[in-house]
Hints:
Blueprint: E1 3-6, H1 26-38, E2 44-48, E3 54-60, E4 68-69, E5 73-81, H2 90-104, E6 109-115, H3 125-130, E7 134-138, E8 143-149, E9 158-159, H4 161-164, E10 173-177, H5 183-197, E11 202-206, H6 210-214, E12 223-227, E13 230-233, H7 239-245
Parallel strand pairs: 5-6, 10-11
Antiparallel strand pairs: 1-2, 2-3, 3-5, 4-9, 6-8, 7-8, 10-12, 12-13
Helix pairs in contact: 1-5
Amino acid sequence: MEYIRVTKENLAQEHICCAISNNRDVQVASKKAWLAERFADGLVFLKSVERGKCFIEYLPAEMAWNPILAAGYTFIDCLWVSGSFKGHGYSNDLLSACIDDSKTKGKKGLCILSAAKKRPFLADPKYLKHKGFSVCDEADNGVQLWHLPFSDGAEPPKFKDCAKHPRVDEPGYLLYYTSQCPFNAKYVPLVTEAARARGIPFRAIHLESREAAQNAPTPVTSYALFFNGAYLTNEQMNEARFLKLAGR
């Protein structure tokens, strides 16, 4: 397998794996705009040259859009290999490239979000354990922070207090999301309208800065849905799924 690093210079012509379409698609446009602003922060997007979901996205943990304390670490936003790409060792290739790059940059290690059992849009804990990662912190909602230190003396990362105890003081449905996930550009407006049309109390907060994301009341900021103050899920929803959840 050949891989290519997406940069500001080739972003316009390259597909971005998690949203494969043309640049006029709202999902593609949203993700590419978000990426374009993150490259200056040290974000790396390494992907298969073939079209499909086979990529890794990572950046210095200090620049991550998540409420973590992980100075000197690399934070992996997403490691996604699916479909026909699974079972060929491509995840190992991408992770190894991230490790080598991070060591070259003098990083203390890697960190990534997961859970005790596999959850949608979070890293597979079985794979992480197999590759030497271990849990270094856990939030009340079961979302875990895993790390792979490069030396025995490296201080482990941890969640900020706002992420450790995810809760909000607002009735109804409250959604926090970022443009890191391209699906949000399409589905958040549709869910918002579906809720409005049926009188379902729903509010979406678009986290548009790193500072806002790093102080959000949730360890997962790409998509975090609350109901009556309690955390529900990080799984992106279309109208049908949301209405089923809301009993409509």
